[in-house]
Amino acid sequence: MRVSNPRRGGRLALIAVALLGLGGCAGFSKDGGFSSVERTAGERLDKEVVWARSDSEREQLKQRVGELLAKPLSVDDAVQVALFNNPGLQASFHELGISEADLVQAGRLPNPGFSFGRLTKGDEVELERGVHLNVARLIALPMTRRMEARRFEQVQRETSLRVLELAAETRKAYYQAVAAEESLRYIGKVKEAADASAELARRMAEAGNFSTLQRAREQSFYADASLNLVRAEQARTAARERLIRLLGLWGEQTAFQLPERLPDLPENADDLPDIERTAMASRLDIEAAKLGAESLAKNLGLSRATRFVNVLELGAVHNSSNEEPTQRGYEISVELPLFDWSGARVAKAESLYRQALERTAETAINARSEVREAYFGYRSAYDIARHYRDEILPLRQRIAEENVLRYNGMLIGVFELLADARTQMASVNGYIEALRDFWIARADLDMALVGKPSLSASSGVEMAAEAPAGH
Questions:
Q1: Would you give the DSSP letter of residue 412?
Q2: Which family does the entry's similarity section mention (predicted)?
Q3: In this structure, is residue 323 part of a structural domain?
Q4: Residue 382 maps to a domain
Q5: Which of 464, 438, 468, 95 is nearest to 297 (CA)?
Q6: pLDDT at position 202, please?
Q7: What is the secondary structure of 263-329 as a DSSP string?
Q8: How far apart are CA 147 and CA 303, in angstroms?
Q9: 3-state class of 176 per DSSP?
Q10: Rounded CA separation 219/217 (Å)
Q11: 19 or 214: whose pLDDT is higher?
């Protein structure tokens, strides 16, 4: 009978506890990393986002969406409906789950290997048992986990950006839909005036009191008004359907009501002298690009560290025989880089890293340009809308009042009065479009200050998700 060595057993126990400790830190979080997305939506939008991962959560969201749609939809309610109900956004939330799964997997210990052999020599039977562990992967485990942690953080920022982008696109679609409804009403009034003018011209021409040229001119106004009405109806339908898609609505939900007019133009435009500095400090796409470059830098270091020793296995061997004493020992298995020196893998890592650096620089340069362009567009749109409100519309109103007085004094005829009414309504429609453009420019400026999602941003860090050791 053999007695085991207690010191050896204690050392093995300590090693086992240490290995379990390394593996125990790799677990799933309660919210799947969604708290950062919720925090971004709350801080930057003052809105709520919900990741519906069960039927009960989806049913609750459906009820809340129904409550918001039961009344005329405001722009803030439209954004909230989109954040609750857009299926594309819900799909992007699962990127967090995929990335966290990669993070947890990167922190898992490599599975040990077990070997068993049975040899016979005459009456002697020899049993060989071995346990092997990939030590190279175990050594690289902390670095691999740090790389995946950075990638997970990058995915969180990308997901937050998608939330902000959906909010901005919903605001723009909302303003377009409301403006299209309002324009349609005014163009309909122009069409009514053209109808009356054309009918009056027909009757006067039949009575011989109107020339052919005058009647043709009124008929031309009528034809143009009819065409503009069809175009306005088409624009209204297209704008509303785009908003419906962003809100993720279908069936009876699409019968929601919009307000009759756009929000009023503010008295003053925002003055942002340090807008470039603000954007560089707050844009999430720049932060995500930096994280991607840092992750690839870590991956490059790991690729270089495991260039020559990519597989290193340590094993314990236990041989027993029915005739000989039991044999115990260990074995080390090392991959010899005779044919593959991992030069291609290191070169790929270097190229990916340098590519990420260039893309980060491109993102920063584009960010400065985009925010300047957005701010100039915002100020220009404000100046145009204010010019309509303070100059053009008051002048058109004054002209209309003077023409009414001249008509009452029989100094002008009904056709001149109708023509002036058409011109005035066209000016009102121009103001509606200018006001729409201002609110859209405001949404573009808000988005330029936080960044924009890049579909290729995560592709550059795919190699960081691979653990070079162990292949």
A1: S
A2: Belongs to the outer membrane factor (OMF) (TC 1.B.17) family.
A3: yes
A4: yes
A5: 464
A6: 84
A7: PPPPSS----TTHHHHHHHH-HHHHHHHHHHHHHHHHHHHHHHTSS---EEEEEEEEEESSS--EEE
A8: 12
A9: helix
A10: 5
A11: 214
DSSP state string for 54-101: SHHHHHHHHHHHHHHHTSPPPHHHHHHHHHHH-HHHHHHHHHHHHHHH
Contact 292, 356 (CB under 8 A): yes
Can you tell me the distance from the alpha carbon of 367 to that of 417, in angstroms, rounded to the nearest whole number?
Answer: 52
Q: Which two tokens stand for residue 305?
A: 């560290």
- Measured torsion, CA atoms of residues 348, 352, 353, 357, in degrees rounded to the nearest 10: 150
* Per-residue DSSP letter, 256: -
Give the rounded percent of residues in the chain with a pLDDT score beyond 70.
80
Domain annotation covers residue 10: no
Q: What per-residue confidence (pLDDT) applies to 314?
A: 55
At 410, which amino acid appears? M
pLDDT band at 408 (very low <50, low <70, confident <90, very high): confident
Give the mean model confidence (pLDDT) for residues 252-267: 93
Would you report the helix, strand and coil content of the chain in percent, each value rounded to 5? 70, 10, 20
Three-state secondary-structure class, residue 118: strand
Q: What confidence tens digit (pLDDT) does each residue in 184-213 have?
A: 998 998 888 888 888 888 888 888 887 888
- In which domain, by residue range, is 442 found? 25-465
pLDDT at 458: 42
Adjacent-strand bridge partners of 54: none
Q: How far apart are CA 220 and CA 212, in angstroms?
A: 12
Over residues 44-87, the pLDDT tens digits come to 899 999 999 889 999 999 999 999 999 999 999 999 999 999 99
User: pLDDT tens digits for 13-22?
Assistant: 444 445 555 5
Contact residues for 266 (Cβ-Cβ < 8 A; gap 6+): none
How many structural domains does the chain have? 1
Non-local (6+) Cβ contacts of 394 within 8 A are none
Question: pLDDT, tens digit, for every residue of 418-470?
Answer: 788 888 888 888 999 999 999 999 999 999 988 876 543 344 444 444 444 44
Measure the CA–CA gap between 425 and 441, rounded to whole angstroms. 24
Q: Which residue has the tokens 């909230």?
A: 80
The one-letter code for the residue type at 212 is T
What would the mean pLDDT of 386-395 be, rounded to a whole number? 94
User: Band of the pLDDT at 2, cuts 50, 70, 90?
Assistant: very low
The distance of Cα 22 from the centroid of its chain, to the nearest Å, equals 35
For residues 314 and 59, give the distance between their C-alpha atoms in angstroms, rounded to a whole number: 53
C-alpha radius of gyration, the chain, whole number: 36
Q: For residue 376, what is the domain's CATH number?
A: 1.20.1600.10
- Can you tell me the distance from the alpha carbon of 342 to that of 336, in angstroms, rounded to the nearest whole number? 11
Half-sphere exposure for 87 (CA within 13 Å, toward CB): 5
Residue-level length of the chain = 471
For 204, the token pair is 């006067």
